[in-house]
Amino acid sequence: MRIDILTVVPELLEGPFSASIMQRAQDKGLAEIHIHNLRDYSLDKHKNVDDYAFGGGAGMVMSIEPIDRCISKLKSERDYDEVIYMSPDGIELKQEVCNQLSLKQNLILLAGHYKGVDERVREHLVSMEISIGDYVLSGGELAAAVVTDSIVRLIPGVLNDETSALSDSFQDGLVAPPVYTRPAVYNGWEVPEILRSGNLKGIESWRHEQSIERTKARRPNLHKKFSGD
Questions:
Q1: CATH value at residue 184
Q2: Kind of pairing between the strands at 189-190 and 185-186
Q3: Does 161 reside within a domain?
Q4: How far apart are CA 56 and CA 54, in angstroms?
């Protein structure tokens, strides 16, 4: 999979992809993550990528020209499945969206900044918009990093244990059950006996029950959807 991220602040994206699972995915050749500075596509002598909004108002707006040039160049080199704009009013990022995107080959993520992008970008250049939550960030770079991480970790071979992603929260509509590791007893606090029993069927049943109870207690909205109430 290849993911191209378009931004006016590439420095914000230097860290998230240079360690841990994201770095391992790239080292294995399972994912390519490329960061593009939109200022490199500006014809303005000062490399400006924003301008005042028509009609007035506070804040600057990202110009369409650099974005169009960057996307056009990338599309001339390969086909892309989606051009995604990180937007507060996009579809909410959920696990099923991550699952679907992890099956794609090439994606472009556009990180907004300032007061947003020229609306013509959204009308003519973008095929999908995603929000990571009902709040506002200083820019779309962190949101793009979240989306990239949530997708890449699902690619077969990225995680050391192929079944790990399948047991994550939300994969089955429930939050994950509690997990424990050694020592079995610490400060008088014990790991549940069932997890030490070796009874795999019983363990799976316990974990499923715990997922249901934890979802009911902590995320009643998800439990209602899961139970069909």
A1: 1.10.1270.20
A2: antiparallel
A3: no
A4: 5
